[in-house]
């Protein structure tokens, strides 16, 4: 588990960049946290870091937004806050998606229809910033977090400065 304090939105974006730079070939990421915790900020920063230059829309009502990646595969950004039933996911046509990346906000609401997570990200409000915890959820996730820690790209301070 890796825990860090993210003092501002730029810190959230920097974390997104570090995760994008170290992610495995296929990564399923569950983004946990209350309304306004920074899940979409992290997702947007991540997609930008992967080279997506166009508009990054919030999947609030569409449930999913799909982005072609430079290598020919896809990135999927889901927000399941407004899903009525996990079964609705089956109608989104994601079964045949060749996705290199799944970024899923409110994953508990679609749990049984989602692929298993490699990484669990927990965001929470803390002072004027955010606290983040990164928890591996698969063998690939374990390796990923080791690579992330070894990359030196994480900010060193795990707690808010006084
Ligand atoms: N580390 C941070 N410190 C302070 N503010 C932040 C930080 N990261 C993101 N924010 C801000 O938090 C606000 C809410 O962020 P965001 O929309 O990403 O939350 P969310 O978790 O996706 O919420 P929702 O569940 O409603 O979709 C934004 O205004 C964003 O700029
Ligand atoms: Mg959001």
Describe the protein in words.
The protein is an alpha/beta fold and 162 residues long. The chain has one domain: P-loop containing nucleotide triphosphate hydrolases (Rossmann fold). 23% of the residues lie in helices and 28% in strands. It is built from three helices and seven strands; from the N terminus they run βαβαβββββα. Strands 1-7-6-2-5-4-3 form a seven-stranded mixed β-sheet. Helix 1 packs across helix 2. The site of adenosine-5'-triphosphate (ATP) has 16 residues, from helix 1, helix 2 and strand 7.
Summarize the entry for a quick read.
With 162 residues, this protein is of the alpha/beta class.
Q: Features of this protein?
A:
single chain, 162 residues, alpha/beta, 7-stranded mixed sheet, 3 helices, binds adenosine-5'-triphosphate, binds magnesium ion
Looking at CATH, the homologous superfamily is: P-loop containing nucleotide triphosphate hydrolases
Give the domain tally.
1
CATH architecture: 3-Layer(aba) Sandwich
The multimeric state of the shown protein is: single chain
Protein topology:
Layout: E1 2-6, H1 9-22, E2 27-32, H2 39-49, E3 64-68, E4 74-79, E5 99-105, E6 119-126, E7 129-136, H3 139-151
Helix pairs in contact: 1-2
